[in-house]
Amino acid sequence: MGCFNKLLIAGAVIGALLAVLGGILIPVGNSIIEGTVNKEAVIEEGTTAYDNWVAAGASVYRQFWFFDVTNPVEIVEKGSTPVVVQRGPYTYKTRYLPKEIVTFSNLTVTFLLPLGAIFEPSMSVGPEEDTVTVLNLVVAGTYSLVPSFMHGVVERFIQSTNSSLFQRRSVKELLWGYYDPILKNTTGLFSPYNGTYDGPYTVFTGRDDIAKVGKILSWRGEETLSFWDDKYCNMINGTDASSFAPFVDKKKPLYFFSSDICRSVSASYEETLDLKGIKVYRYTLQPNTLAAPNVNPDNRCYCRDPKVTKNCTMAGVLDISSCQENKPIYISLPHFLYGSPSLRESVLGLSPNPEHHDTFMDVEPITGFTLRFAKRIQVNMMYGPSKVITVLKKVKDYTIFPIVWLNETAALDDGTANMFKQELFSRVDMLEMLQLLLLGIGVSMFLLCFTIYCVVRSRRSSGKIA
Predict the structure, then answer these.
(1) Please, is 461 exposed, middle or buried when counting C-beta atoms within 10 Å of its C-beta (0-12, 13-18, 19+)?
(2) What are the two backbone dihedrals, phi and then psi, of residue 3, each rounded to the nearest 5 degrees?
(3) 114, 100 in Cβ contact below 8 A?
Protein backbone atom coordinates (compact mmCIF):
# COMPACT_ATOMS: atom_id res chain seq x y z
CA MET A 1 0.00 0.00 0.00
CA GLY A 2 2.94 2.36 0.66
CA CYS A 3 3.98 2.18 -2.98
CA PHE A 4 0.38 2.83 -4.10
CA ASN A 5 0.16 5.89 -1.85
CA LYS A 6 3.35 7.20 -3.32
CA LEU A 7 1.92 6.81 -6.82
CA LEU A 8 -1.23 8.70 -5.80
CA ILE A 9 0.81 11.49 -4.27
CA ALA A 10 3.02 11.66 -7.38
CA GLY A 11 -0.10 11.78 -9.59
CA ALA A 12 -1.57 14.59 -7.52
CA VAL A 13 1.71 16.51 -7.69
CA ILE A 14 1.97 16.01 -11.47
CA GLY A 15 -1.68 17.10 -11.85
CA ALA A 16 -1.04 20.18 -9.77
CA LEU A 17 2.05 20.99 -11.85
CA LEU A 18 0.08 20.59 -15.10
CA ALA A 19 -2.68 22.83 -13.73
CA VAL A 20 -0.11 25.43 -12.69
CA LEU A 21 1.54 25.17 -16.12
CA GLY A 22 -1.83 25.67 -17.79
CA GLY A 23 -2.51 28.66 -15.57
CA ILE A 24 0.93 30.13 -16.29
CA LEU A 25 0.37 29.68 -20.03
CA ILE A 26 -2.67 31.97 -19.92
CA PRO A 27 -0.74 35.23 -19.28
CA VAL A 28 2.31 33.89 -21.14
CA GLY A 29 0.14 32.86 -24.08
CA ASN A 30 -1.61 36.20 -24.09
CA SER A 31 1.79 37.89 -24.09
CA ILE A 32 2.90 35.71 -27.03
CA ILE A 33 -0.28 36.56 -28.96
CA GLU A 34 0.09 40.26 -28.21
CA GLY A 35 3.74 40.26 -29.21
CA THR A 36 3.04 38.41 -32.47
CA VAL A 37 0.14 40.68 -33.42
CA ASN A 38 2.06 43.84 -32.56
CA LYS A 39 5.01 42.65 -34.65
CA GLU A 40 2.83 41.80 -37.66
CA ALA A 41 0.85 45.07 -37.37
CA VAL A 42 3.88 47.29 -38.01
CA ILE A 43 3.92 48.85 -41.49
CA GLU A 44 7.26 47.64 -42.82
CA GLU A 45 8.33 45.13 -45.43
CA GLY A 46 7.82 41.51 -44.39
CA THR A 47 4.82 42.02 -42.09
CA THR A 48 1.20 41.04 -42.67
CA ALA A 49 0.13 44.66 -42.22
CA TYR A 50 2.53 45.86 -44.94
CA ASP A 51 1.36 43.24 -47.44
CA ASN A 52 -2.26 44.29 -46.93
CA TRP A 53 -1.45 48.01 -46.71
CA VAL A 54 0.65 48.46 -49.82
CA ALA A 55 -1.67 46.49 -52.14
CA ALA A 56 -4.99 47.67 -53.50
CA GLY A 57 -6.75 45.20 -51.18
CA ALA A 58 -10.44 44.30 -51.38
CA SER A 59 -12.54 45.72 -54.19
CA VAL A 60 -13.98 49.10 -53.26
CA TYR A 61 -17.13 50.32 -54.99
CA ARG A 62 -18.80 53.71 -55.14
CA GLN A 63 -22.53 53.60 -55.69
CA PHE A 64 -24.20 56.85 -56.73
CA TRP A 65 -27.86 57.82 -56.30
CA PHE A 66 -28.97 61.02 -58.02
CA PHE A 67 -31.84 63.26 -56.95
CA ASP A 68 -33.83 63.71 -60.16
CA VAL A 69 -35.87 66.95 -60.03
CA THR A 70 -39.46 66.38 -61.20
CA ASN A 71 -40.71 69.98 -61.33
CA PRO A 72 -37.86 72.23 -62.56
CA VAL A 73 -40.11 74.62 -64.54
CA GLU A 74 -42.51 75.18 -61.63
CA ILE A 75 -39.60 75.92 -59.28
CA VAL A 76 -38.18 78.63 -61.54
CA GLU A 77 -41.44 80.17 -62.80
CA LYS A 78 -43.72 79.81 -59.77
CA GLY A 79 -41.39 79.38 -56.82
CA SER A 80 -42.77 75.89 -56.12
CA THR A 81 -41.11 73.66 -53.54
CA PRO A 82 -38.67 71.31 -55.33
CA VAL A 83 -39.65 67.65 -55.54
CA VAL A 84 -36.98 65.00 -56.15
CA VAL A 85 -36.94 61.28 -56.90
CA GLN A 86 -33.93 59.10 -56.12
CA ARG A 87 -32.32 57.38 -59.16
CA GLY A 88 -29.64 54.73 -58.80
CA PRO A 89 -27.41 53.07 -58.01
CA TYR A 90 -24.81 53.73 -60.68
CA THR A 91 -21.76 51.80 -59.52
CA TYR A 92 -18.05 52.29 -60.15
CA LYS A 93 -15.08 50.29 -58.99
CA THR A 94 -12.60 52.59 -57.25
CA ARG A 95 -9.38 52.38 -55.22
CA TYR A 96 -8.22 49.43 -57.36
CA LEU A 97 -4.71 50.83 -57.77
CA PRO A 98 -1.92 50.21 -55.23
CA LYS A 99 -0.28 53.06 -53.35
CA GLU A 100 2.43 54.89 -55.27
CA ILE A 101 5.79 56.51 -54.42
CA VAL A 102 5.98 54.66 -51.10
CA THR A 103 8.89 56.15 -49.16
CA PHE A 104 10.03 55.08 -45.69
CA SER A 105 11.77 57.64 -43.49
CA ASN A 106 12.74 56.87 -39.90
CA LEU A 107 9.44 55.92 -38.20
CA THR A 108 7.03 57.08 -40.93
CA VAL A 109 6.04 56.19 -44.47
CA THR A 110 4.84 58.59 -47.18
CA PHE A 111 2.68 57.64 -50.16
CA LEU A 112 0.22 58.81 -52.80
CA LEU A 113 -3.22 57.25 -53.23
CA PRO A 114 -4.06 57.05 -56.97
CA LEU A 115 -7.70 57.68 -57.92
CA GLY A 116 -9.65 55.92 -60.64
CA ALA A 117 -13.19 54.80 -61.44
CA ILE A 118 -14.41 51.99 -63.71
CA PHE A 119 -18.14 51.70 -64.44
CA GLU A 120 -19.76 48.41 -63.36
CA PRO A 121 -22.91 47.86 -65.50
CA SER A 122 -23.91 44.66 -63.68
CA MET A 123 -24.15 46.55 -60.39
CA SER A 124 -26.05 49.53 -61.83
CA VAL A 125 -29.68 50.25 -62.69
CA GLY A 126 -28.75 51.43 -66.16
CA PRO A 127 -25.92 52.74 -68.34
CA GLU A 128 -23.94 55.81 -67.31
CA GLU A 129 -25.49 57.56 -70.30
CA ASP A 130 -28.81 57.71 -68.40
CA THR A 131 -29.88 61.33 -67.94
CA VAL A 132 -31.18 63.08 -64.83
CA THR A 133 -32.39 66.60 -64.07
CA VAL A 134 -30.29 68.19 -61.35
CA LEU A 135 -29.19 71.60 -60.12
CA ASN A 136 -27.05 73.55 -62.58
CA LEU A 137 -23.64 73.42 -60.92
CA VAL A 138 -22.29 76.58 -62.53
CA VAL A 139 -25.40 78.73 -61.97
CA ALA A 140 -25.50 77.74 -58.30
CA GLY A 141 -21.76 78.23 -58.02
CA THR A 142 -21.63 81.70 -59.57
CA TYR A 143 -24.46 82.85 -57.30
CA SER A 144 -22.07 82.51 -54.36
CA LEU A 145 -18.73 83.11 -56.03
CA VAL A 146 -19.71 86.34 -57.76
CA PRO A 147 -20.51 89.34 -55.49
CA SER A 148 -24.17 90.37 -55.51
CA PHE A 149 -23.40 93.75 -57.12
CA MET A 150 -22.12 91.80 -60.16
CA HIS A 151 -25.13 89.49 -60.48
CA GLY A 152 -26.13 91.46 -63.56
CA VAL A 153 -23.12 89.96 -65.34
CA VAL A 154 -24.19 86.48 -64.21
CA GLU A 155 -27.70 87.16 -65.56
CA ARG A 156 -26.31 88.09 -68.98
CA PHE A 157 -24.24 84.90 -69.14
CA ILE A 158 -27.26 82.78 -68.17
CA GLN A 159 -29.46 84.44 -70.79
CA SER A 160 -26.86 84.33 -73.58
CA THR A 161 -26.22 80.61 -73.07
CA ASN A 162 -29.90 79.73 -72.57
CA SER A 163 -29.03 78.21 -69.18
CA SER A 164 -31.35 77.77 -66.19
CA LEU A 165 -31.30 76.83 -62.53
CA PHE A 166 -31.59 73.16 -63.49
CA GLN A 167 -30.05 71.08 -66.24
CA ARG A 168 -30.47 67.62 -67.71
CA ARG A 169 -27.25 65.70 -68.13
CA SER A 170 -25.97 62.14 -68.23
CA VAL A 171 -24.68 60.40 -65.12
CA LYS A 172 -21.23 60.19 -66.70
CA GLU A 173 -21.16 63.93 -67.45
CA LEU A 174 -22.27 64.98 -63.99
CA LEU A 175 -19.77 62.78 -62.20
CA TRP A 176 -16.67 63.06 -64.34
CA GLY A 177 -17.10 66.28 -66.32
CA TYR A 178 -18.81 68.12 -69.18
CA TYR A 179 -18.27 71.34 -71.10
CA ASP A 180 -20.25 74.18 -69.54
CA PRO A 181 -21.23 77.11 -71.82
CA ILE A 182 -21.11 79.71 -69.04
CA LEU A 183 -17.77 78.59 -67.65
CA LYS A 184 -16.42 77.79 -71.13
CA ASN A 185 -14.55 74.95 -69.50
CA THR A 186 -15.04 71.45 -68.12
CA THR A 187 -16.81 71.02 -64.81
CA GLY A 188 -18.34 68.12 -62.89
CA LEU A 189 -18.96 66.87 -59.38
CA PHE A 190 -15.69 64.90 -59.24
CA SER A 191 -13.84 66.39 -62.20
CA PRO A 192 -10.97 65.74 -62.64
CA TYR A 193 -10.77 62.26 -61.07
CA ASN A 194 -9.19 59.48 -63.14
CA GLY A 195 -5.43 59.90 -63.19
CA THR A 196 -5.34 62.14 -60.11
CA TYR A 197 -4.12 61.45 -56.58
CA ASP A 198 -5.15 61.93 -52.98
CA GLY A 199 -2.26 62.98 -50.77
CA PRO A 200 0.57 62.68 -50.24
CA TYR A 201 -0.03 61.12 -46.83
CA THR A 202 2.64 60.55 -44.20
CA VAL A 203 1.68 58.00 -41.53
CA PHE A 204 3.44 56.36 -38.60
CA THR A 205 4.68 52.80 -39.15
CA GLY A 206 4.19 51.85 -35.48
CA ARG A 207 7.71 50.41 -35.19
CA ASP A 208 8.50 52.45 -32.05
CA ASP A 209 4.95 52.63 -30.69
CA ILE A 210 2.28 50.26 -32.02
CA ALA A 211 -0.46 52.57 -30.67
CA LYS A 212 0.54 55.07 -33.39
CA VAL A 213 0.47 52.64 -36.32
CA GLY A 214 -1.38 54.11 -39.32
CA LYS A 215 -1.96 57.47 -37.63
CA ILE A 216 -1.63 60.35 -40.06
CA LEU A 217 1.26 62.70 -39.36
CA SER A 218 0.65 64.94 -42.37
CA TRP A 219 -1.54 65.33 -45.46
CA ARG A 220 -0.34 67.23 -48.52
CA GLY A 221 2.81 68.05 -46.59
CA GLU A 222 1.03 69.75 -43.68
CA GLU A 223 0.45 68.42 -40.15
CA THR A 224 -2.71 70.52 -39.77
CA LEU A 225 -5.45 71.67 -42.11
CA SER A 226 -5.92 75.26 -43.22
CA PHE A 227 -9.61 75.13 -44.18
CA TRP A 228 -11.07 76.18 -40.86
CA ASP A 229 -10.43 79.30 -38.79
CA ASP A 230 -9.74 77.31 -35.66
CA LYS A 231 -6.92 75.13 -34.29
CA TYR A 232 -9.33 72.42 -33.12
CA CYS A 233 -11.16 72.03 -36.43
CA ASN A 234 -7.86 72.03 -38.34
CA MET A 235 -6.51 69.01 -36.44
CA ILE A 236 -5.74 65.83 -38.39
CA ASN A 237 -6.72 63.03 -36.02
CA GLY A 238 -6.39 59.27 -36.27
CA THR A 239 -5.86 57.05 -39.31
CA ASP A 240 -7.48 56.90 -42.76
CA ALA A 241 -10.00 54.37 -41.30
CA SER A 242 -8.55 51.38 -43.20
CA SER A 243 -6.98 50.14 -39.97
CA PHE A 244 -6.39 51.10 -36.36
CA ALA A 245 -3.98 50.08 -33.60
CA PRO A 246 -4.30 46.42 -32.50
CA PHE A 247 -6.38 45.31 -29.51
CA VAL A 248 -9.22 47.77 -30.00
CA ASP A 249 -10.93 48.96 -26.82
CA LYS A 250 -14.63 49.26 -27.65
CA LYS A 251 -15.11 51.72 -24.79
CA LYS A 252 -13.05 54.31 -26.66
CA PRO A 253 -14.01 56.06 -29.93
CA LEU A 254 -11.99 55.57 -33.11
CA TYR A 255 -10.69 58.69 -34.85
CA PHE A 256 -10.04 59.07 -38.57
CA PHE A 257 -9.47 61.75 -41.18
CA SER A 258 -11.48 61.94 -44.42
CA SER A 259 -10.20 64.10 -47.25
CA ASP A 260 -13.66 63.88 -48.87
CA ILE A 261 -15.12 66.06 -46.14
CA CYS A 262 -11.94 67.97 -45.27
CA ARG A 263 -12.02 67.15 -41.56
CA SER A 264 -11.46 64.52 -38.88
CA VAL A 265 -14.33 62.64 -37.26
CA SER A 266 -14.86 59.90 -34.69
CA ALA A 267 -16.95 56.75 -34.53
CA SER A 268 -18.30 54.89 -31.50
CA TYR A 269 -18.86 51.20 -30.81
CA GLU A 270 -22.40 50.05 -31.55
CA GLU A 271 -22.45 46.24 -31.47
CA THR A 272 -20.45 43.03 -31.98
CA LEU A 273 -21.15 41.09 -35.18
CA ASP A 274 -20.03 37.94 -36.95
CA LEU A 275 -18.45 38.51 -40.36
CA LYS A 276 -17.75 35.23 -42.16
CA GLY A 277 -16.86 33.55 -38.86
CA ILE A 278 -14.78 36.50 -37.60
CA LYS A 279 -15.84 38.62 -34.62
CA VAL A 280 -15.94 42.32 -35.51
CA TYR A 281 -16.87 45.52 -33.69
CA ARG A 282 -19.27 47.77 -35.56
CA TYR A 283 -18.52 51.48 -35.25
CA THR A 284 -20.83 54.22 -36.50
CA LEU A 285 -20.59 57.99 -36.70
CA GLN A 286 -22.08 59.65 -33.66
CA PRO A 287 -25.34 61.52 -34.44
CA ASN A 288 -23.79 64.72 -33.06
CA THR A 289 -20.99 64.64 -35.67
CA LEU A 290 -22.91 67.15 -37.80
CA ALA A 291 -25.01 68.59 -34.97
CA ALA A 292 -25.59 72.32 -34.72
CA PRO A 293 -23.12 74.20 -32.47
CA ASN A 294 -25.82 74.88 -29.89
CA VAL A 295 -26.03 71.08 -29.42
CA ASN A 296 -22.38 70.20 -30.03
CA PRO A 297 -20.19 73.25 -29.22
CA ASP A 298 -17.18 71.53 -30.84
CA ASN A 299 -18.82 72.21 -34.21
CA ARG A 300 -18.82 75.99 -33.77
CA CYS A 301 -15.68 76.34 -35.88
CA TYR A 302 -17.32 74.45 -38.78
CA CYS A 303 -20.07 77.06 -39.15
CA ARG A 304 -18.85 79.42 -41.87
CA ASP A 305 -22.02 81.17 -43.03
CA PRO A 306 -24.52 82.04 -40.26
CA LYS A 307 -26.85 83.58 -42.86
CA VAL A 308 -27.38 80.27 -44.69
CA THR A 309 -27.38 78.08 -41.57
CA LYS A 310 -29.85 80.25 -39.67
CA ASN A 311 -27.32 81.69 -37.25
CA CYS A 312 -25.50 78.35 -36.99
CA THR A 313 -28.56 76.49 -35.66
CA MET A 314 -28.92 74.19 -38.67
CA ALA A 315 -27.92 70.57 -38.05
CA GLY A 316 -26.83 67.88 -40.49
CA VAL A 317 -24.75 69.83 -43.03
CA LEU A 318 -21.08 70.81 -43.35
CA ASP A 319 -20.00 73.75 -45.47
CA ILE A 320 -16.80 72.60 -47.23
CA SER A 321 -16.53 75.57 -49.61
CA SER A 322 -13.18 76.50 -48.06
CA CYS A 323 -11.62 73.30 -49.41
CA GLN A 324 -13.55 73.37 -52.72
CA GLU A 325 -12.27 76.62 -54.21
CA ASN A 326 -15.13 78.48 -52.45
CA LYS A 327 -17.81 76.63 -54.41
CA PRO A 328 -20.99 76.51 -52.27
CA ILE A 329 -20.77 72.77 -51.56
CA TYR A 330 -22.33 71.31 -48.44
CA ILE A 331 -21.76 67.74 -47.27
CA SER A 332 -24.35 65.76 -45.32
CA LEU A 333 -25.44 62.22 -44.67
CA PRO A 334 -27.81 60.84 -47.35
CA HIS A 335 -31.34 62.27 -47.33
CA PHE A 336 -30.17 64.72 -44.62
CA LEU A 337 -30.10 61.96 -41.99
CA TYR A 338 -29.90 63.58 -38.51
CA GLY A 339 -30.37 66.96 -40.19
CA SER A 340 -32.73 69.80 -39.28
CA PRO A 341 -36.34 69.25 -40.46
CA SER A 342 -36.15 72.46 -42.51
CA LEU A 343 -33.70 70.77 -44.89
CA ARG A 344 -36.31 68.15 -45.85
CA GLU A 345 -39.12 70.72 -45.89
CA SER A 346 -37.37 72.89 -48.47
CA VAL A 347 -36.85 69.89 -50.80
CA LEU A 348 -39.56 67.21 -50.87
CA GLY A 349 -39.06 63.50 -51.59
CA LEU A 350 -36.38 62.66 -49.02
CA SER A 351 -36.66 59.71 -46.63
CA PRO A 352 -33.71 59.31 -44.25
CA ASN A 353 -33.12 55.83 -42.85
CA PRO A 354 -30.14 55.01 -40.54
CA GLU A 355 -29.92 51.43 -41.86
CA HIS A 356 -29.35 52.61 -45.44
CA HIS A 357 -27.81 56.05 -44.91
CA ASP A 358 -25.53 55.86 -41.88
CA THR A 359 -21.76 55.36 -42.16
CA PHE A 360 -20.23 52.33 -40.42
CA MET A 361 -16.99 50.34 -40.04
CA ASP A 362 -16.61 46.71 -38.96
CA VAL A 363 -13.24 46.43 -37.19
CA GLU A 364 -11.55 43.17 -36.16
CA PRO A 365 -10.58 43.94 -32.53
CA ILE A 366 -7.32 41.93 -32.25
CA THR A 367 -5.55 43.30 -35.35
CA GLY A 368 -7.45 46.60 -35.69
CA PHE A 369 -8.08 45.93 -39.40
CA THR A 370 -11.29 47.30 -40.93
CA LEU A 371 -12.84 44.27 -42.66
CA ARG A 372 -16.04 45.91 -43.93
CA PHE A 373 -17.19 49.50 -44.25
CA ALA A 374 -19.79 51.76 -45.84
CA LYS A 375 -18.95 55.46 -46.14
CA ARG A 376 -22.11 57.33 -47.09
CA ILE A 377 -21.97 60.99 -48.10
CA GLN A 378 -24.40 63.36 -49.82
CA VAL A 379 -23.21 66.23 -52.01
CA ASN A 380 -25.37 69.37 -51.91
CA MET A 381 -25.07 72.89 -53.31
CA MET A 382 -26.51 76.13 -52.01
CA TYR A 383 -28.38 78.86 -53.85
CA GLY A 384 -30.59 81.70 -52.69
CA PRO A 385 -32.91 84.53 -53.72
CA SER A 386 -31.86 87.25 -56.16
CA LYS A 387 -33.54 90.39 -57.48
CA VAL A 388 -31.32 90.39 -60.58
CA ILE A 389 -30.87 86.77 -61.70
CA THR A 390 -34.17 85.78 -63.36
CA VAL A 391 -34.02 82.05 -62.57
CA LEU A 392 -33.64 82.92 -58.86
CA LYS A 393 -36.24 85.69 -58.53
CA LYS A 394 -38.93 83.27 -57.26
CA VAL A 395 -36.62 81.64 -54.70
CA LYS A 396 -37.84 82.54 -51.21
CA ASP A 397 -34.88 81.56 -49.04
CA TYR A 398 -31.42 80.03 -49.07
CA THR A 399 -31.70 76.40 -50.14
CA ILE A 400 -29.21 73.59 -49.60
CA PHE A 401 -30.11 71.38 -52.56
CA PRO A 402 -29.26 67.64 -52.74
CA ILE A 403 -27.59 66.52 -55.97
CA VAL A 404 -26.22 63.02 -55.36
CA TRP A 405 -25.35 60.69 -52.53
CA LEU A 406 -22.72 57.98 -52.62
CA ASN A 407 -22.01 54.77 -50.78
CA GLU A 408 -18.33 53.82 -50.84
CA THR A 409 -18.19 50.26 -49.64
CA ALA A 410 -15.95 47.21 -49.39
CA ALA A 411 -16.17 43.89 -47.58
CA LEU A 412 -13.96 40.92 -46.81
CA ASP A 413 -14.21 38.17 -49.45
CA ASP A 414 -14.38 34.47 -48.58
CA GLY A 415 -10.79 33.71 -49.60
CA THR A 416 -9.32 36.50 -47.51
CA ALA A 417 -11.58 35.60 -44.58
CA ASN A 418 -10.36 31.99 -44.62
CA MET A 419 -6.74 33.09 -44.84
CA PHE A 420 -7.31 35.57 -42.02
CA LYS A 421 -8.79 32.86 -39.81
CA GLN A 422 -6.03 30.35 -40.60
CA GLU A 423 -3.13 32.77 -40.17
CA LEU A 424 -4.33 34.43 -36.99
CA PHE A 425 -7.19 32.69 -35.25
CA SER A 426 -5.98 29.11 -35.77
CA ARG A 427 -2.83 29.94 -33.80
CA VAL A 428 -4.77 31.81 -31.13
CA ASP A 429 -7.32 28.96 -30.84
CA MET A 430 -4.54 26.33 -30.66
CA LEU A 431 -2.79 28.18 -27.84
CA GLU A 432 -6.04 28.66 -25.94
CA MET A 433 -6.90 24.95 -26.37
CA LEU A 434 -3.47 23.97 -25.04
CA GLN A 435 -3.95 26.24 -22.03
CA LEU A 436 -7.37 24.79 -21.24
CA LEU A 437 -6.23 21.21 -21.94
CA LEU A 438 -3.30 21.41 -19.54
CA LEU A 439 -5.40 23.18 -16.94
CA GLY A 440 -8.23 20.62 -17.30
CA ILE A 441 -6.00 17.53 -17.23
CA GLY A 442 -3.96 18.89 -14.33
CA VAL A 443 -6.97 19.77 -12.17
CA SER A 444 -8.65 16.43 -12.98
CA MET A 445 -5.50 14.40 -12.15
CA PHE A 446 -4.97 16.30 -8.93
CA LEU A 447 -8.56 15.93 -7.76
CA LEU A 448 -8.75 12.25 -8.77
CA CYS A 449 -5.47 11.25 -7.09
CA PHE A 450 -6.14 13.37 -4.03
CA THR A 451 -9.66 11.93 -3.65
CA ILE A 452 -8.44 8.31 -3.98
CA TYR A 453 -5.63 9.00 -1.55
CA CYS A 454 -8.06 10.42 1.00
CA VAL A 455 -10.44 7.44 0.58
CA VAL A 456 -7.61 4.93 1.05
CA ARG A 457 -6.31 6.76 4.10
CA SER A 458 -9.82 6.85 5.53
CA ARG A 459 -10.33 3.09 5.06
CA ARG A 460 -6.96 2.25 6.55
CA SER A 461 -7.75 4.42 9.57
CA SER A 462 -11.15 2.71 9.98
CA GLY A 463 -9.50 -0.73 9.78
CA LYS A 464 -7.02 0.10 12.54
CA ILE A 465 -9.79 1.34 14.84
CA ALA A 466 -11.77 -1.84 14.30
Answers:
(1) exposed
(2) -65, -40
(3) yes
